[in-house]
Amino acid sequence: MTDKSVTVLIPGRIHPRVLERLERDFDIVRVPEQGGELELDEATRAKVRGVAVSGTLQRAWMDALPNLEIVSNFGVGYDGVDADHAATKGIIVTHTPDVLNDEVADTTIGLLLNTVRRLPRAEAWLRDGRWKSEGAFALSPLSLKGRHVGLLGLGRIGLEIAHRLEAFKLKVSYHTRTPRSDVSYTHYSSLREMAQAVDTLICIVPGTAATHKIINAEILSALGPNGVFINVGRGSSVDEAALEAALRSGTIAAAGLDVFYEEPTTASAFLDLDNVSLLPHVASASVPTRNAMADLVVDNLIGWFTDKTVISPVPETPVKK
After folding, report:
1. Best CA proximity match to 259, nearest among 243, 241, 276, 283
2. Rounded to whole angstroms, how far apart are CA atoms 22 and 152?
3. I want to staple 204 with a disulfide (CB 3.0 to 4.6 A). Which of 26, 103, 153, 226 is the partner?
């Protein structure tokens, strides 16, 4: 594509590589972060045939673009785009799976280690000069050795996490709506039953109505006083008030969080706790991985407007052959 005959809308911020590549082949229309009505004149709205988005595309904005054909989403999670609604309008939605699987899985293991061994606090102890002035850093009350990990979600990223956990000689179980036939891990049909059986719970599910605050006081109580909770999925899956209470009361031992109910956040409810490891949603945040995600966003758009093919459509909007 070289004639820039196709107009693509970019709402709000997006990875600069997406913008750089799209500007070569498409007519680009940029609008500020969403929150109100789509402030484009009728002629421009009619021109828009594609959207490249990182975050949310309001349903009303989708309806305001009469010739929209495809929404290319930056990220494996696409809860900011109503894919079911898009499907009713014949709009294809794509996302960026696979290219970030390893990075997120690696970060998950790192966050788990940081949480049970308190490594960031140990480093701060050294950096603050306290090792020399006050002596050795306190022994970590927890260890990774011998833990039984339950994965809430066993999709592409969940499998990569599971494979890494096996290398640490840990027992792995999982909870999904439907058991997989291609793994030997124990499947639990109930999240509560799995929480009772394991001592480490890793959440890797997307943000949906079904997963909203699925990690609640009941689940945390079932996990127990030796329990460790790790979240690298979506913050909306956790009742944060219940999690804070569980950490303060000793209902569970520790937590590691890369995602939060509202983002960005100061995470003020957790800052004074010494049994929490916190990251600012960085699981896939390396230059190589984010560049690969950006390329997939653009390649999906190019494929669609070249020969009506895409690399990674979401299940709700499959491309008809």
Report:
1. 283
2. 36
3. 153
The pair of structure tokens assigned to 146 is: 């011998």
Contact criterion met (CB below 8 Å) for 105 and 161: yes
| Structure-block tokens of residue 69 | 């054909």
What amino acid positions are annotated as catalytic residues? 234, 263, 281
Name the residue with tokens 């605050």: 213
Give tens-digit pLDDT for 209-263: 999 999 999 999 999 999 999 999 999 999 999 999 999 999 999 999 999 999 9
Q: Domain spans of the chain?
A: 7-97+288-307, 101-278
The answer to whether 53 touches 61, Cβ cutoff 8 Å, is no
The identity of residue 233, as a single letter, is G
What is the CATH architecture of 7-97+288-307? 3-Layer(aba) Sandwich (3.40)
Give the pair of three-digit tokens for residue 108: 């998950």
Cβ count near 67 (within 10 Å)? 11
pTM (2 d.p.): 0.93
* Closest by CA position to 271, among listed 235, 247, 242: 247
